Amino acid sequence: MRIHEDHAPRAPARHPSPPLYTPRLRLRSRASADSYLDGAWWPRSSELVTELPDLLAVLAVRLGPIWRVVYDPRCWSSAPASTVVGGATVRMDSYHFELWNTMYVFGRDAGMLVLQVIPADTDEPTAHAAMMTAAESVADTPAELRPITNHLAMSTATETLEHDRQPFGAPTRTPRLLLRGTASHAEQFDGAWWPRTANLTAELHDLISALTPRLGKTARISFDWNTTSRHQRGIDHGDGVDLHVPDVGQQPDAMHLVGVDGVHLTLLVIAADTPADVADAQLLHAVGRTRHQLPLAD
């Protein structure tokens, strides 16, 4: 699931003008939905206002009219809060991403693309290799490239820090998660989670978002974090979630989550590189189902 934004102006907008220069852009196919990055862009200068019109003219083919761009201010010259592209106002918000030089582009129809921006002064061989890597298949994408991104922080500067914490907004990607019904109490697992990469901490926002209706606000997560996860920042400051090593007697593949109200869930965590058919079987087994049973409404 993509981010759902509630701030988009409803007036019609268009980006009808073709690009003056064809942007140096490489996108994944629409079918590549499991990667954090949707592609890479190599602009010709560090002037964001100058570079955006050509980029948005091309991205509008995929997204439709575009109303907002969130960019990394460390990688561009000073930019205004908005600009006019093709006769429509596009909001421009800065955000310090963990994955350096990331850019989010939001369409008015709730679509979104995430780009890795390659600095304009990068030499051609390096830039070309980076663009190819960013658009490779999901299986070839290094796990460490999936950063933690607190999407509520990517909002207007007038919002307060109190909004920059749980409950999070809609997940960036729908987590591969299956839960038992609330009436099941005596089982080993309450559900199973099949993360998309080995960097589990980088996917926690999406998992917590999906579990909020069941768990409430998450207070504590205990797990045997792998090396990739430990080397990443655990979770954004102020989120109010404590990450712990396993509890006494906790199985290596079990994740314990505790809500602020004491609600407890235990999830089976399936390795990201597990073949799809095996992972599907493990998801179903963890919640007491088989392939021949229809999913039950929770």
Automatic annotation (TrEMBL):
Residues 1-21 are annotated as: Disordered. InterPro entries: DUF5994 (IPR046036). Pfam families: DUF5994 (PF19457). This is Uncharacterized protein.
